[in-house]
Amino acid sequence: MSCGMSDDLTREQIYDVPAGYQPLPWHRGFGRQVGPLFEKRDENGLTRAFRVGEHHTNGMMNAHGGMVMTFADMAWGAAVEKDEDTWWVTIRLVCDFLSGARHGSWVEGRGEVLSVIDNIYTVEGRIWSGDKTLMTGTGIFKIIEKRV
Amino acid sequence: MSCGMSDDLTREQIYDVPAGYQPLPWHRGFGRQVGPLFEKRDENGLTRAFRVGEHHTNGMMNAHGGMVMTFADMAWGAAVEKDEDTWWVTIRLVCDFLSGARHGSWVEGRGEVLSVIDNIYTVEGRIWSGDKTLMTGTGIFKIIEKRV
After folding, report:
1. Which residues contact A91 (CB under 8 A, 6 or more apart)?
2. List of chain A residues whose C-beta atoms are within 8 Å of the C-beta of residue B57
3. Which among A67, A74, A87 is the nearest to B30, CB-wise?
4. At B51, which CATH number?
5. Are B50 and B14 in contact (CB under 8 A)?
6. Most C-beta atoms within 10 A of its C-beta, which of A2, A97, A102, A119?
């Protein structure tokens, strides 16, 4: 019996996840609704990703702009996280849409912290698929006290 | 037999939809995934709305920032629609997060076209719940040829 491994294999087969990526354990709320999302940590820092599914698409069968912005919030905001217990809120997000991601594309995103003043982080972000840049932008995020 | 009417009553009871709002018939893709959304047309123009459900929430049980931006794209972008056959893409969205919307809140949004140059529309937008402004921002949208 290896139900867990069997589930993992099935999930990877379905989403065709590149090496190094692990699924994010978001099992409730909007994070689950727009998932699954994945992340990896390497020498470039923390990169998040998702495979464009039917439930992410607009009428042109590209990733919907709302999904790309949602992913920007999640991928760029992650740059401010010191650990899993860091809570942050988004103050401003500026998103420039450069090109579309087709249904089935593997989309990746990462942010880089440009400045920190008090608990306000300015993050420069990029989202891409293969060698095509989909979105660039800037996020302003604030670290907050964790509320239980 | 009145199954249709019975379904409508059930839907309105579940989502507690204010008078004048009709559900948007988005039955596929990301529009369905983040729905249901509603809209009304009156002397103020086109207003869109949604009730914050569990599937819209972040870890603080507020509407997730990604959902609010997704809704901004849908509510502000609607200001450029002449009819249901108008297709548009988002070029840039600037979102300022002012306050959160609790689980169960009725959230409304509307955009106003500030300028049109060729097919590029600049829209000033607002999202609110009751008398609380949740987000202000600017959207740059472009009308495109409908692709079949």
Report:
1. A120, A140, A141, A142, B96, B97
2. 28-30
3. A67
4. 3.10.129.10
5. no
6. A97
In one-letter notation, the amino acid at residue A30 is: F
Range of the structural domain that residue B122 is part of: 11-144
SS3 at position B131: coil
- Would the CB atoms of A56 and B71 count as touching at under 8 Å? no
pLDDT digit string, tens, across residues B39-83: 999 998 899 999 999 999 998 899 999 999 999 999 999 999 877
Q: How far is CA A8 from CA A20, A36, B35, B106, in A?
A: 14, 13, 29, 38
Q: Does A127 reside within a domain?
A: yes
Q: What is the pTM of this model?
A: 0.89
Chain segment A84-114, per-residue pLDDT in tens: 778 889 999 999 999 999 999 999 999 999 9
Q: What is the ipTM of this complex?
A: 0.87
Residues 39-58 of B with CB under 8 A from A: 54-58
Which of B30, B59, B97 is the closest to A66 by Cβ? B30
pLDDT digit string, tens, across residues B36-50: 999 999 998 899 999
Q: Which residues 58-87 of A are in CB contact (within 8 Å) with B?
A: 58-60, 63-67, 69-71, 73-74, 87
Taking the CA of residue A2 and the nearest CA in chain B, the distance in Å comes to 31
Number of separate domains in chain A: 1
What is the C-alpha to C-alpha distance for residues A95 and A47, in angstroms, rounded to an integer?
18
A143 and chain B: CB distance < 8 Å anywhere?
Answer: no
B18 token code pair: 């204010």
Is there a domain that residue A4 lies in?
Answer: no
Domain annotation covers residue B80: yes
Q: What is the DSSP string of A21-37?
A: -EE----SHHHHHT---
User: A19: distance to nearest CA of chain B, Å?
Assistant: 27
- Identify whether A5 is part of a domain: no
CB contact under 8 A, B60 and A93: no
